[in-house]
Amino acid sequence: MAGRASWRSLAVVLAVLGAAATTAGEAAQVPCYFVFGDSLVDNGNNNGIVSLARANYPPYGVDFAGGPTGRFSNGLTTVDVISKLLGFDDFIPPFAGATSDQLLTGVNFASAAAGIREETGQQLGGRISFSGQVQNYQSAVEQLVSILGDEDAAANHLSQCIFTVGMGSNDYLNNYFMPAFYDTGSRYTPAQYADDLAARYTQLLRVLYSYGARKVALIGVGQVGCSPNELATQSANGVACVDWINVAVRMFNQRLVGMVDQFNRLLPGAHFTYINIDGIFSDILRAPGGHGLKVTNRGCCGVGRNNGQVTCLPFQTPCPNRNEYLFWDAFHPTEAANVLVGQRAYVARLASDVHPVDLRTLARL
Which among 158, 213, 169, 139 is positioned nearest to 40, based on CA atoms? Predict the structure, then answer.
């Protein structure tokens, strides 16, 4: 019951924020919202593929109105929060099974275990890499051209939409820092690996741009070294974050800032921005109580040390006070944390939260 109450309280927060973002009866701030990413924002695209990276079973979705949907959280993801703040009546649907009408207002292409590199996450089975997600988007654009009548109409429509792209987490968790399955850790220094990821990422983001994407937010990689799984397996005391992991990931994030500046300088009409998830999480971890959180080093649902050695199992009983936890399982944030991050992506609380603009400003450009 406590869990349901916490969900209702968060829902009230979102309703208030949504009302502030759009006045009654006003349309959404942008005509469509397209999502690319991994398990942090997957909302069902992996449900129909043969993969260990699936979350369409209880207790995932325990606080979500629709129950388990494929979201790797107890409730809302960050993009669910963002879609509400942008004024959309409904959550952005997964591309898998989306209708033509839904393509007009945007779909979610994200896939759990996906990476920028093609091999990333392969030990978990099926997943849709970032290049595969871009191919699905290209297919969607071709359908939009048919729906809207011509390429110019489709280009005009897409130029007003918001795109969020959050890739890279798995390229570290399920590739670079997994030597039992991958040799990238021995073949690349952290700086070389960040360069490799950035080069591949740049190429695919240019494809998105060539297919109409103009207002694009690159979601940085969070503090992987502070996840319950890394605390359980790499931290001496299970409390201190694993700095060498976070340092490597920050090298990639730094390159994202440079990419944003380059795109905005070189690509006509482009409005790219960077959402500093690492910085937002650092701020939350400095004073979790001030953000309504009490437990930051354990998963609400999981097995072993820090509830992070094995992720949340089917029908496992999760913690009752989910709104006080930063992490839902071994890797993924709770709805409470996703609300905090989504709010700050939409309206920056600190200047360091975004570069150069937040999503509310991006929508107005």
Answer: 169
